[in-house]
Amino acid sequence: MRTTKTVSISMSPADLKVAERLARATNRSLSGVFREGLKRIASEQYWQRVQAIAQPKAQALGIAQDDVTRLVHEYREEKRAKNGNKKTK
């Protein structure tokens, strides 16, 4: 049983050349180039939604963007210490 669907898309010849060039440069098929693009757009939208939710909460708590990496590190260290795990790199 086939797990993929075949679709048809329209694009300008110039865009097709760009896609073919990307496919060759990244050792992907044209389908692979378009799948990767779709995944990247979906991921970008996901993180925009996360940021839209988190940013007002962070502002209310007085957390600046520069604080996030440090706070994540501190949280992970506390969690490791609580669980008795050593830091792994």
Give your account of this protein's structure:
This protein has 89 residues and is mainly α. The protein has three helices and no strands.
Q: What's this entry about, in short?
A:
By secondary structure, the chain is mainly α.
Q: What are the key terms here?
A:
89 residues, mainly alpha, 0% strand, elongated
Termini separation comes to: 42 Å
DSSP strand (E) fraction? under 5%
Please give the share of residues in helix: over 70%
Topology as a string of helices (H) and strands (E): HHH
Low-pLDDT residue intervals, each spanning 5 or more residues: none
Total helical elements:
3
Radius of gyration: 21 Å
Describe the global form. Answer: elongated
**Biggest sheet descriptor:** none
Per DSSP E runs of 2 or more residues, the count of β-strands stands at 0
Q: Decide which structural class fits the backbone.
A: mainly alpha
Chain-averaged pLDDT:
92
